[in-house]
């Protein structure tokens, strides 16, 4: 299992130089990938383009860009521009977001989410790979050619937790990007569903990218309580609630890898054994020593 970094924790107080420096640090430390959410006032693709081509093999992934608010033709152009800027290292992660965001923040109607994603992929993927498409859909339509800055299309992954979306991920994309998911859910639900869909479609086994907080500490109880509090919303969203119930856990305070270096290593080994191809840590710590210990533990794994 490859180990990467999810830098989305930096978006709480975003500074472009801080994020790009964190990407540089992930490269220097030998991590396999760096992921950033599309949230708030930060555009993940623009951050990656600002980082640019460094000559490293570090993959740069969006985790994830919501599909409801950006036309797939526009996103295809943005992704290909970023792909050219970073030297072909981009993974374009997209997702449906959640009904409360769609109806609350964006004042849009939440309906037929699977159809929405199908329409999106039917436009996005041909534009990335061929530069042309003709599609008239229920949600999204586009007909035309599009000159491309890069003829090397980025990988496309979708956030998938439910059975229908997992089958779509396996049959149509390069994999799925997970949040609030542990080893039991990967082994019993995520991997079997998605791998079977990929096999049926004649596609290679897709990537399973698992991301949760990691915190090396000698005092795990307050660390778990802190994570439970600041990430409490995820225990209430229906899609995450269902997979947390598979784990038999309440929220991210329980699910996160918190404890000694050996305990963190055991947690990572369990996730790898469950079938994850990649683990992208959200590194945590209550002081500089814990932050450094967490980073060091991840580098050793």
Number of helices: 12
Instruction: Summarize the amount of helix as a percent range.
Output: 40-55%
Strand content: 15-25%
| DSSP strand tally | 13
Report on the biggest sheet: 11 strands, parallel
Computed Rg: 19 Å
Principal-axis shape: globular
Structural summary, described in words:
The longest helix has 19 residues, at 183-201. The strands form 2 sheets. Strands 1, 2, 3, 4, 5, 8, 9, 10, 11, 12 and 13 form an 11-stranded parallel sheet that branches. A two-stranded antiparallel sheet has the order 6-7. The radius of gyration is 19 Å and the shape is globular. The protein is built from 12 helices and 13 strands. The chain is an alpha/beta fold.
Fold blueprint:
Layout: E1 2-6, H1 16-28, E2 33-36, H2 44-51, E3 59-62, E4 65-66, H3 72-85, E5 90-95, H4 99-105, H5 113-129, E6 132-136, E7 141-145, E8 155-158, H6 163-172, E9 175-179, H7 183-201, E10 207-211, E11 213-216, H8 220-230, H9 238-247, H10 252-255, E12 257-259, H11 261-274, E13 278-283, H12 288-300
Parallel strand pairs: 1-2, 1-13, 2-3, 3-5, 4-5, 5-8, 9-10, 10-13, 11-12, 11-13
Antiparallel strand pairs: 6-7
Structure summarized in a few sentences:
The protein is α/β, with parallel strands linked by helices. It is built from 12 helices and 13 strands.
Which terms would index this structure?
11-stranded parallel beta sheet, 301 residues, alpha/beta, 19% strand, 13 strands, two-stranded antiparallel sheet
């Amino acid at each position: 299992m490859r180990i990467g970094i999810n830098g989305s924790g930096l978006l709480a107080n975003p500074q472009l130089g801080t994020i790009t420096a964190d990407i540089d640090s992930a490269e220097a430390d030998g991590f396999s990938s760096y992921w950033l959410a599309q949230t708030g006032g930060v555009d993940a693709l623009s951050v990656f383009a600002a980082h640019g081509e460094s000559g490293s093999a570090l993959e740069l992934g969006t985790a994830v860009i919501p599909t409801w608010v950006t036309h797939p033709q526009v996103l295809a152009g943005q992704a290909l521009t970023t792909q050219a800027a970073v030297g072909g290292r981009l993974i374009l992660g997209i997702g449906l977001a959640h009904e409360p965001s769609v109806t609350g923040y964006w004042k849009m109607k939440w309906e037929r989410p699977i159809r929405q994603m199908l329409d999106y992929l039917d436009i996005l993927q041909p534009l990335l790979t061929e530069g042309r498409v003709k599609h008239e859909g229920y949600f999204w339509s586009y007909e035309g050619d599009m000159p491309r800055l890069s003829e090397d299309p980025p990988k496309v992954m979708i956030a998938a937790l439910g059975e229908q979306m997992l089958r779509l991920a396996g049959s149509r994309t390069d994999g799925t990007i997970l949040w609030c998911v542990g080893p039991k859910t990967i082994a019993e639900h995520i991997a079997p569903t998605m791998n079977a869909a990929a096999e049926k479609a004649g596609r290679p086994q897709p990537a399973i990218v698992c991301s949760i907080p990691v915190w090396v500490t000698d005092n795990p109880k307050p660390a778990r309580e802190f994570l439970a509090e600041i990430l409490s919303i995820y225990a209430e969203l229906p899609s995450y609630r269902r997979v947390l119930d598979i784990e038999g856990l309440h929220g991210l305070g329980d699910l996160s890898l918190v404890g000694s270096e050996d305990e963190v290593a055991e947690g990572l080994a369990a996730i790898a054994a469950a079938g994850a191809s990649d683990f992208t840590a959200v590194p945590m710590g209550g002081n500089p020593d814990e932050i450094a210990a967490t980073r060091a533990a991840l580098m050793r794994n």
